[in-house]
Design a protein that fits this description.
Elements (H helix, E strand, L loop, with lengths): L45 H7 L6 E5 L3 H11 L5 E5 L2 H10 L4 E4 L8 H10 L8 E5 L5 H9 L4 E4 L4 H71 L6 H31 L9 E4 H15 L5 E5 L5 E4 L1 H17 L7 E8 L3 E8 L31 H11 L3 E7 L3 E9 L22
Parallel strand pairs: 1-2, 1-3, 3-4, 4-5, 7-9
Antiparallel strand pairs: 6-8, 9-10, 10-12, 11-12
Length: about 450
């Protein structure tokens, strides 16, 4: 209890229970109304609550049947900035320990009903609170028997009144720190377990994708090849009736479309699961590759104009030309789809220094909507046109993956003034192992309109 003229919070613990009518020093009264027992938290000032709000906090349980003692302990522990829960009996202490986790317990020994020693013994019988630190704060004599008995019942320390506030805070702060460190370790363990669970799920998903690739690569391609071979053989016959020719042409077109979809799915899975699309570099001429692709498109779409602007007649390098043909064909095909029929598509190549070459595909027309630019190169992103219903939206994703496998970059600029320009930067020799020394590595990401 507190003496009426007590000058220090510890003075509240100086006197025995023989002075039940002692008044509480007004300076120790909390500034906020006290909350009910079992949920009572030390009445921190708004400033301290603000300071402690961002940091993790531990709960400290105070057990004493004398309100003035509880108030004094709260005042002593208030600077620690932790949550202090005060209860007035052993029964209430056991209930509180069922509801929440605590860093430590400060408990009076002499209490009516369930005293402190018996309460400590019951706390030790529960697995959850078996190792909970208990500090006895009591006015009992210093006889060794009492101290020994307290330790036998599970106390980690035994403090006799009057209690030095600094010593009490120091002891409690040690248990608070240990508790918070333990909570941090437990949280890290949970996060690690969750991360492992996610990794295992991703591994299972990867294995499933690989199995699907095997199905697509073998069980679909094999019968598809037979269908295309049969259709092409029939189309090669000179005396084939017109109705049958049209039917076999539809079969061939459908088979070729399925073949393209299968190839895209295989490339997509290689890019996502297999560590990137594999490339096999060899000596070749990028300009010669572009001429062949343009000639094929001009023959397929004679109504469209494709203009070539080559800074040099020959642009030699070491690349996987078959893979680069996929990239250039995709860019040209997209440019033809998304530009007005009366406007040309422009293909330009040039070099910068001895080690870097560039290829640009430009088309006129409305710019790509700004909301599509950030995800343009992501898989399964399709344009807004009606003819895009037959597309998987994998073309640009695969194109960028192929370019990056060479150590290059692929970006886009789309504005009303210049139209849409896809810019491909390639090192003269494909950097299959790393992009670390590629001159294209510093090229900016896709720009917005």
């Amino acid at each position: 209890m507190l003496e009426a003229g007590a000058r220090h919070p510890a003075d509240a613990l100086r006197y025995s229970r023989s002075t039940p009518n002692a008044r509480v020093n007004a300076s120790l009264k909390p500034s906020v109304p006290r909350t009910p027992v079992l949920t009572a938290v030390s009445d921190l000032s708004p400033r301290r609550i603000h300071e402690a709000s961002d940091a993790p906090r531990a709960r400290i349980l105070l057990v004493d049947d004398t309100p003035s003692n509880l108030l004094a302990l709260e005042a002593i522990l208030e600077p620690l900035g932790q949550q202090v829960v005060s209860v007035r009996s052993g029964d209430e202490a056991l209930k509180a320990l069922l509801l929440d986790e605590y860093a430590c317990v400060l408990m009076d020994v002499q209490m009516p009903g369930l005293d402190g020693l018996e309460t400590a013994r019951l706390v030790r019988t529960r697995e959850r609170t078996k190792h909970l630190p208990i500090l006895f704060v009591t006015a009992l004599s210093r006889e060794a028997a009492y101290v020994t008995r307290g330790y036998e019942y599970g106390a980690v320390d035994y403090l006799l009144k009057p209690v030095d506030p600094d010593i009490l805070r120091a002891k409690v702060s040690v248990f608070v720190e240990l508790y918070l460190r333990g909570e941090k370790l437990r949280q890290q363990a949970l996060e690690l377990a969750e991360r492992r669970r996610v990794e295992e799920e991703l591994q299972r998903a990867t294995e499933l994708e690989q199995q699907l690739v095997g199905i697509v690569g073998h069980d679909i391609r094999t019968p598809l090849a037979a269908i295309l071979t049969t259709a092409n053989a029939q189309l090669s016959r000179e005396l084939l009736p017109d109705a049958q020719r049209k039917a076999f042409e539809r079969v061939a077109r459908g088979g070729e479309r399925i073949q393209r979809i299968v190839d895209q799915l295989l490339d997509f899975t290689r890019a996502r699961v297999g560590g990137g699309i594999p490339v096999v570099p060899g000596a070749g001429d990028l300009n010669e590759l572009c001429r062949k692709l343009v000639d094929e498109l001009r023959a397929a779409k004679p109504e469209r104009s494709i203009l070539c602007d080559f800074a040099r007649d020959s642009l030699p390098g070491v690349w996987d030309l078959d893979r680069l043909a996929q990239v250039v064909a995709n860019l040209l095909d997209n440019a033809l789809k998304y530009s007005p029929r009366d406007t040309p598509v422009r293909l330009r190549t040039y070099e910068q220094g001895a080690d870097t070459v560039y290829l640009e595909v430009q088309n006129a027309g409305a710019p790509i909507p700004a909301h599509l630019l950030p995800t343009l190169f992501q898989p399964f992103r399709r344009g807004d046109g009606a003819d895009q219903r037959e597309s998987l939206g994998l073309g640009l994703y695969i194109a960028r993956s192929i370019v990056e496998a060479h150590g290059g970059t692929l970006r886009v600029e789309s504005t009303p003034d210049v139209g849409t320009i896809f810019s491909l930067c390639l090192p003269r020799q494909a950097l299959v192992e790393t992009r670390a020394h590629s001159a294209c590595a510093g090229v900016s990401e896709p720009m917005t309109a």
